[in-house]
Structures are given as structure tokens and as C-alpha cells.
Amino acid sequence: MIRKITGLLFLMIPVLINAQEVIFEENFDGNELNMDNWSYEEGDGCPDLCGWGNNERQIYNRDYVAVEDGNLVIEAVKEGEKYYSGKIISKDKVEFQYGEIEVRVNVPQGQGIWPAFWMLGHDINEVSWPASGEIDIMEYVGREPNTVYTTLHYPAHHGENASSKKTNIDNIEDGYHIFKAVWTADNIEFFVDGTSVYNFIPEKYDAEHYPFRKPFYFLINMAVGGNFGGPEVDDSIFPKKYYVDYIKVTALEE
Question: Which PROSITE patterns does the UniProt record give (predicted)?
Fold first, then answer.
């Protein structure tokens, strides 16, 4: 197991790992973001990735990220003709390889919003996307009520051709729900509120089909519009808030 924190690399010795060992936990206590774990990602993605690669409308700004009452709160708003929202990432601070990842969230509802909890390979700057791999543990698009997506992007299948499972869950927008991914060297299984919704086993274990044997980091954001989240946006819904209660990563048995 590998956990990388504030630039230091810690190797978890396998013989010491058991199913109960928590290797990362974030409860969003206090009233500000723990910058030892997180960084802000801001702007509109330009010039290299305008619209963040999906023709999204939001401009990310740290002013729309808050920690309140034990929750991370990401708010999406419209101000004049512009949309603003928040995004945080754990790149170069919290990165790990394999484990049971659990997150408890409360998603907002409305046409055009796209909250997500996901992961990218730590080597994305070197190999780019989709060679980096992408693990989408929770995606919700407001145009599809009562529905969540769990998805994997990798060179052989990415974008609209990604390996994805769409799950219908009545009233998923009401209250908090727990999303979990159990990630191993051989498969990734996704759960919602304790029920397995998708177990991904690749066709081959090579870089084209399973670039998931390396450290990954977290991303938490709420997009507006875009190829997947929109394209239409109902401006009457704003402001909207996306709540993340906690994140916990537990090591797996060796």
C-alpha cells in the first residue's frame, strides 16, 4: 500500500496490514479545509482543457468550497452570465494504491448539475488521460433523477465508450447515501448503501485495459452543464449545494 502525504511517501508493509486498518480518513471537522490533504483546482480549464474537456460551463473558484458542520460543502451558483462552483483534489498529498474507499454524500437535484466523487492516476501529468485511468465512484446528473453512475475510463474504453453502470435508486437525492469502491489488483467493485451495483473485471491486465495498478488521488467537484451534465441548464435551480460528510480508505487483507 502506498500513501503519499504532503510530498512524503509512506510504504505500508503488507504483513502489518489487516482489513481493519484505516489508511486515510477525512471527516471535514473544524471550519476550514485541511490543506495537508487537499488543494483547490480553479478556473475554466483553459487554455489546455477549456470547459474541463467536457464543454462544462462552470468556473471553479475556492470561494465556493466550505467546511461546515462536519461536511465539505461545494456550492454551484450563477452570477450574471457566468456559473461558479468548487473543486478540490488530493494530488501529491493523499495518493494510495488499492483499498476499500467509502464516502458519504448528499447530492442536490436540478437540471444541469453534475456532482462527482472520483479518482485519477497519479501519473496523469506524464501519461495524460485516459492512460492515467479514471475511477468514478459516484456521479449524479440532475437531468436523470433517481439515478447514479459508477464508471471506469481507460485507454481501451473511455469517454462515451467507458465501462459504466447506470443504477436507478429511488429518492437518491434525499438525505445522505454511502458509496463504496473495493479496489484490488484484479477488479473494482462498486456499492451504494451496502448493495453491490457493479463489479468490473477487465478483459486483459495490461495498460490498455487495467491501468489501475498504481497510486490514485481523489477529486471532488460539482460541474455545471457539459456533454454529460447538460447540455441544458435550468438557471432557476441555483444556488445548489453538494455535501460530503466523510471519506474513509481501509486497507484490504493481503
Answer: GH16_2
- DSSP symbols for 53-105: GTTB-EEE-GGGEEEETTEEEEEEEEETTEEEE-EEE-TTTSEESSEEEEEEE
Distance CA 67, CA 83 (A): 21
| Total tally of structural domains belonging to the chain | 1
Active site residues: 134, 139
- pTM value? 0.92
Nearest-angstrom CA–CA distance, 71 and 79: 24
Distance CA 185, CA 102 (A): 18
H helix or E strand, kind and range, residue 20: none
Q: Positive or negative CA dihedral for 141, 139, 193, 72?
A: negative
Q: How far apart are the first and last CA of the chain?
A: 10
pLDDT, one tens digit per residue, over 176-201 is 999 999 999 999 999 999 999 999 99
Q: Identify whether the C-beta of residue 165 lies closer than 8 Å to the C-beta of residue 201.
A: no
Q: What is the CATH number of the domain that holds 18?
A: 2.60.120.200
